[in-house]
Amino acid sequence: MHVTLQQPTGARLITAADQELAVPATLRYTSAEPPAVHIDFPPHVTVDGEATTWTFARTLLGEGLRGPAGLGNVRVRPAGPAHTSVEFHAPQGVAVLRFPTADLTRFLARTYTVVAPDEETVGAELDHGLVALFGGRV
């Protein structure tokens, strides 16, 4: 049985003109994918009008709360004492959103109550072990 956590939050989209637009989002974590966190955006705030989910490493979120982290499509860094910036890089461009650090910290702490940071790969290793044990029939 998998556990899923969801936490609604708000973010501020930083525009090219340094304006800020309110954007609703939902932070999501599931024990079915222990190394990953998800940020879901509703259709009315996306370019194509479709609900959008960005998925990235839970460790990236944790590192980004303490200092700049990430080299790929998602980058996380502190933005002052009370906010954290999350950059989403896509072919259409870059979106920079500023989240309340307290929301991200609380969410991350909640994920650790579901799967501890050092136990993220136990499920995958168990699956591989069972496959080997039962000759590829699980």
Topology:
Elements: E1 4-14, E2 20-30, E3 36-41, E4 52-57, H1 58-66, E5 74-78, E6 83-90, E7 93-100, H2 101-114, H3 122-133
Antiparallel strand pairs: 1-2, 1-7, 2-3, 3-4, 5-6, 6-7
Helix pairs in contact: 1-2
Q: What features would you describe in this structure?
A:
The chain is an alpha+beta fold. The protein is built from 3 helices and 7 strands. It has helices spanning 58-66, 101-114, 122-133; strands spanning 4-14, 20-30, 36-41, 52-57, 74-78, 83-90, 93-100. A 7-stranded antiparallel beta sheet has the order 4-3-2-1-7-6-5. The longest helix is centred in the C-terminal third of the chain and has 14 residues, at 101-114. The relative contact order is 0.17. The model is unreliable at 124-131 (pLDDT under 50).
Name its key features.
3 helices, 7-stranded antiparallel sheet, globular, 138 residues, alpha+beta, single chain
Helix/strand order: EEEEHEEEHH
Helix content: 25-40%
Oligomer: single chain
The count of helical stretches stands at 3
Task: Give the DSSP E fraction (strand runs of 2 or more residues).
Answer: 35-45%
User: The biggest beta sheet, please?
Assistant: 7 strands, antiparallel
Summarize the structure.
Helices cover 25% and strands 40% of the residues.
